[in-house]
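Saturday, quiet lab. Running sequence design on the structure tokens for the scaffold JK sent over.
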């Protein structure tokens, strides 16, 4: 009789806990609004410093948890297409094929520009040749030029070692589409994994040149950016074929703003959130005054608010 009583009590308790758990899950689902709940988002890793600051501030102001997956641009788009995430931060818009894919599933995805970024060229601090033209950058990336002395006759650094973050990154795509254009990238270029690895590689190799997102080194208030800038130097780039200190600039906000710096790209939130829940709410936050000020403070150009452009006197 005692055994039967114990079994009945155990069954009742199990049912109680299952019921409580189901109610809890139901409650969490109901709380998934524009300002509460839990989501994962995919972010181009070149935008990690700024987007992490956005996530931190949004979570501080709302009862929400956002898990940001910092991956390559290609992986971010792939996660969005597979419906593993409803929001991706990338350095490009949807392609026609991607829009067609969503439309076949009766979705109406959105693309919202949130910032204007740049691609920085970085070299070792002891490299004396830090001024270069767009034309010579293109010659290096296509393999037409392979040695520093082919551009700078007095250079003793030998072969140019070009490094990117990884083969699926937005930086590689930008170099291919916007810098090299009709010519393919050289097969001698080296791919690592992350922007941080590119910085470390450059700091240890005097003959190397790296391409990274400006966001990694643009936040002068961030300790990580300050640490990185101590390890490398940022090249000045000129649209003029005869690059000089007078006509070449670094990717500061002012020169990105007036397009004097040539390697500029747009940053987008790609959104597929038919219910208009937390992904939509986070997007609204990023495009709000507070969200855009975070972008401004990070050294990039905000997309949806006016700015006071200040020229840097060097």
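Result came back. Writing it out in full:
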């Amino acid at each position: 009789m005692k055994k039967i009583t114990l079994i009945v009590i155990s069954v009742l308790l199990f049912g109680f806990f299952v019921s409580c758990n189901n109610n809890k899950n139901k409650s969490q689902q109901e709380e998934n609004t524009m300002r509460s709940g839990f989501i994962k988002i995919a972010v181009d890793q070149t935008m990690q410093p700024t987007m992490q600051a956005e996530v931190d501030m949004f979570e501080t102001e709302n009862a929400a948890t956002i898990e940001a997956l910092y991956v390559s641009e290609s992986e971010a788009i792939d996660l969005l297409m597979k419906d593993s995430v409803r929001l991706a931060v990338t350095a490009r818009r949807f392609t026609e094929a991607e829009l067609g894919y969503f439309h076949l599933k009766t979705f109406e995805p959105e693309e919202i520009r949130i910032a204007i970024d740049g691609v920085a060229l970085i070299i070792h601090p002891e490299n004396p040749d830090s001024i270069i033209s767009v034309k010579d950058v293109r010659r290096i990336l296509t393999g037409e030029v392979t040695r520093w002395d082919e551009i700078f006759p007095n250079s003793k650094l030998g072969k140019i070692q070009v490094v990117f973050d990884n083969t699926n990154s937005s930086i590689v795509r930008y170099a291919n589409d916007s810098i090299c254009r009709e010519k393919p990238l050289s097969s001698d270029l080296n791919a690592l994994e992350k922007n941080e690895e590119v910085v470390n590689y450059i700091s240890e190799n005097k003959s190397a040149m790296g391409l990274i997102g400006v966001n990694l080194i643009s936040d002068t208030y961030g300790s990580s950016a300050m640490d990185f800038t101590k390890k490398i130097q940022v090249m000045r780039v000129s649209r003029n074929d005869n690059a000089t200190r007078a006509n070449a600039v670094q990717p500061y906000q002012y020169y990105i703003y007036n397009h004097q710096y040539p390697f500029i790209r747009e940053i987008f939130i790609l959104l597929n959130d038919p219910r208009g829940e937390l992904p939509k709410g986070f997007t609204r936050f990023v495009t709000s005054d507070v969200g855009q000020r975070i972008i401004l403070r990070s050294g990039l150009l905000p997309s949806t608010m006016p700015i006071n452009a200040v020229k840097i006197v060097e």
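Notes for JK: Residues 117-264 form a domain with the D-Maltodextrin-Binding Protein; domain 2 fold (CATH 3.40.190.10). The first strand starts at residue 36 and ends at 44. Ask whether to fix the surface positions before the next round.
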